[in-house]
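New to this. Help decode both lines:
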Amino acid sequence: MLSRRHLRIKVMQAIYAFLQGDNVDLVKGEKELMKSINKIYELYIFILLLLPELIDFGKARIDERKQKRLPTAEDLNPNTKFVDNLLLAKLSNNNALRREAEVRSLSWADEPELIKKIYNSIVESEEYTAFMTNDDNSYTGGQKFVQSIFKKYIATEEMLPYLFEEKSIFWVDDLDFINSMVVKTLGIIGENAGDNAPLLPLLKDDEDRKFMLDLFHKTIIHEKEYDELIKPKLQNWEMDRVAFMDVLLMKMAISEFLNFPTVPAKVSMNEYIEISKDYSTPQSKLFINGILDKLLIDFKREDKIQKTGRGLVE
């Protein structure tokens, strides 16, 4: 599931595109935001589909070896521990995964060479040899093995980011998060899970969806007003000399200060300072912290901060 920080980042990207594009249609901007969220879920489904694809490839290879003109004893009596992995069988038969793949037209059928490359990297590994020769035939043992090879040989496959970038501009930035989501999914599919076992949702609940959309709307609607709040705190700086991303992050923080009563002000400030480390300049964290700290003092003195419930925690 997307964390609040990840939601803030997606909203930040959507607002950035909206403002830089001189867009005036909030409904269209909201649709673009939701499209970017939907694309994250597509990536999750697409990567999950890769795992059963590897099993199908392995089974096909076993059948090919049995059909050799002079098959060896190993060809005729292969070790099928990997292709018979119960977790991967459950994933292959999962109705939710099949339904999402069909609705979204997702398939690995056009990537046979990549499937082959990943499969070979797995079967040539020390982990694979150890797994195939040990006496642990438990579901848990197979589950841990699948998680291990995913993290080491699939999540790190250097060709995947290039493929994902070709398929969607929305995917590459979210790859690390989705890989962690896949690992979590592999860990929660239990031995007794049936074909109707649910996949992880992208959003935790309706509250997170509302938070995301409200943050998008309120920041854009009040962004000129927030300009006027920021300008007096810049001292010797002109507004147009401040990095656009810094201003945007400060506006989003101000929006949370003033419009989100259940979000503690310090949490909002710290979140945008952390986001600035990845999306703005090396000096941004100190600059943003200084401006927001001054604004927060003013807001509290003027009784503009109205927090309730969890928002009262400091």
